[in-house]
Write a structure and sequence with these properties.
By secondary structure, the chain is an alpha+beta fold. The protein has helices at about 5-15, 30-35, 100, 105-110, 180-185, 195-200, 205-215, and strands at about 55-60, 75-80, 85-90, 95, 115, 120-130, 140-145, 145-150, 165-175, 190. About 25% of the residues lie in helices and about 30% in strands. The longest helix is centred in the C-terminal third of the chain and has 14 residues, at about 205-215.
Length: about 220
Amino acid sequence: MPAAALIIFFLLSLLPGAARAGEVFPSAGAGRFLAYIREPGIPVKPVLPEAIPSTGKFLVAGRGIKDPRFQQSVILIVKFDPQGVMGLIINRPTDIKVSAVLPDVEMLRKHDQPLYFGGPVAKHQIFVLIKSRVKPEKTYPVSGDVYVSHEQATLEQKDVQDAPVRVYTGCAGWAAEQLEGEIARGDWHVVDADPEDIFERPAADIWPLLMKRISEGGRL
């Protein structure tokens, strides 16, 4: 199997669908992260519980990130377990309308919203975030009333016809301990995710607002 295909297969295996409900390992982030920064050569600094990555948190790009794919990006972690990490960039709308990509989905014709760039991996795979008080079928919990799916059928359910949704192409992913290394060197800030930032706030405002919150909290 080509290397690119192996990466895509690995990341898709990290989808919540690869585990049964309750197997998200929310505490895995703490153990892995704290173990990582104790390694020789990694400066040890106080780590607040809210600054430890886990499913349902935001990764906010630090000012030092130069990669244009991630510069000033905000990523929602949709899967974090001992195998690796998967997330969706929430503030990269494209010029393509979702209704043009999925013309058969009636609910998308009601919402003239853009398709979002979710990350540079599995770029032809569609991912969906839904905000719903009731768990829709074929979705997996991320945080609170936010759910993720990678199936178009999710959008065709009557229960989600009026639910806030965002559709993404591609995702971001890290192998085990790779993300911890990037956080330790200051590439990412970890903050609690707010559904308002995902579904209501203009994309251009999300990164500056979160960086302001981080700065005011004394973490910059």
